[in-house]
């Protein structure tokens, strides 16, 4: 279960993080290697400790950590390096940024994705937590003003009427990443009379 609450931006801005894959690499007798991809999707990991300094900030983080019961309850994170449907991850979203699908004349539901292009092997990332009110949709390049909705938690876009057969559907949006604290223990250090710090506050993406 994901608590529909975003980690305050004052803590997430400037955080370090990115995707991690799981690949087994086994050397062979001839000096080559055998590689087995264990995960079909990466997990994003983050570290936010360096953004939390003041006594008030640390008190707020402690309350947030307690409310999540440590690692038990997940929440939402704005990844400041990749929060937009735009190709660079940070520019303003546009209705033609990302592919949504092709109309069949019958289908009304389509999964929101962000595509990371590559000439050999592009990667499509399912987006399940678009920011409320940010979704833009276009049909054959023409933006729609209404007639669609999106479910936060699944990222399923539903049209009130099925798009025509062959219609090219595209989207633009901002999105959050569902994460959890990666440690049940929140370790806080007394630095000065007016300052506290946390040795490490790692976060890990969750797959519901």
UniProtKB/TrEMBL annotation:
Residues 1-12 have a biased composition (Basic and acidic residues). It holds the Pfam family DUF2460. Residues 1-23 are annotated as: Disordered. Residues 3-207 form the DUF2460 domain. It comes from the Bacteria. NCBIfam families: chp_TIGR02217. This is TIGR02217 family protein. It comes from Sphingorhabdus pulchriflava.
